[in-house]
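The authors assume throughout that readers already know how a fold can be written as discrete tokens. Each protein is reduced to its one-letter sequence and a matching series of backbone shape codes. I therefore recommend that a typical entry be quoted early in the introduction. For illustration, here is how one protein appears when written out as sequence plus structure tokens:
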Amino acid sequence: MRRDTRTKQRLWRWRSNPLRRRDDAVEAWIVLAVWTGIALGGTLAGLVAGHAVAESFAQQRAGRHSVPAVLLENTPAVFVTEAGPSRQQVRAKVRWTAADGSTHTGRAKVDTGHKTGSKVRVWTDDQGQLTSEPATAAQATVFAGYAATAAALGVGGVTYAVGRVARGRLDRRRIDQWGREWDQVGPQWIRKTT
């Protein structure tokens, strides 16, 4: 019995009732549409965004190659930052041979503590130009997860906001309607009570 009562209370907007106004039914459909939009739209947006980011990183990994290079200048043994000394990467001039056999020079990120002539690894794109190291598969998965979450929350938030605006307009319309009805009924009650 108790469960039946709760179900009836939840579905009151859908039941046939002489006191139910058309705006109550419209509001019920808006609520249903909003929650469906949040659930399905957010899920779909998250899946699409996550897949797109993962695919982008996969293409990036496929289009970048690690090649040997020769360091053309010394790099500092320790890179000093505001937090103190640390071993990091710095930009230094390097020379490498592209896949077509041509020799190139440029500035690439290399580890600190190397001397001129040292062998280092740099990343190039399909055209043989220097580029940054691509994200690993694990990093790409994390970034894809962030993108999926952001897309799902964005779609859900926009859907919820649109629903709140629509319900707010319905509330204003109901209040205006109640005011007009009170203007018709109110004077009759005031005469009877005075």
The domain at 60-134 is CATH 2.40.50 (OB fold (Dihydrolipoamide Acetyltransferase, E2P)).
